[in-house]
Amino acid sequence: MTSTSSEGAAALGTAAPLRPVVIAGWCVTVLGVAHTVIGLLLTTTHVPGWFTGTLWAVGGSLAAPPPSLGAFWLTVGSFGVPLATLGLVIRWMGLRAIVPPTFVAWTLGVWCTVAGAMFPSPFPLLWIPAVLLIVKARRAARAGDGPGRAEAAL
Fold it and tell me: Between 28 and 8, whose confidence is greater?
């Protein structure tokens, strides 16, 4: 038995989900998970050492970290896990018809622009969810009603 999105929203006790916000949340989540998983796949040789104390007994400096420490900061210690968590929060808000504040979208956009300019990478892909969130927040603010009104004004 399948349920429609309006039935899912009714089960949550809210208005219909905000599709662009949910899609933006999934995009951010996928990028965060992909960064962490791909990083782990590329650095698997260092993972066992993390559990035997190699992270506590490293030499070098922050400017030139040893490979084990660099691998840690590329994966588990990176922005990947918090980014995936942010994506899940955005998705959660969209399912409850809440528009995230525009500062979330603008922060993602500025961050991915600066980081992408410094290092050619998939950072610019974060503009996809950022634009979805900015457009939805502006529309909610313009409409002046619904649960997204107060959040969109920020």
Answer: 28
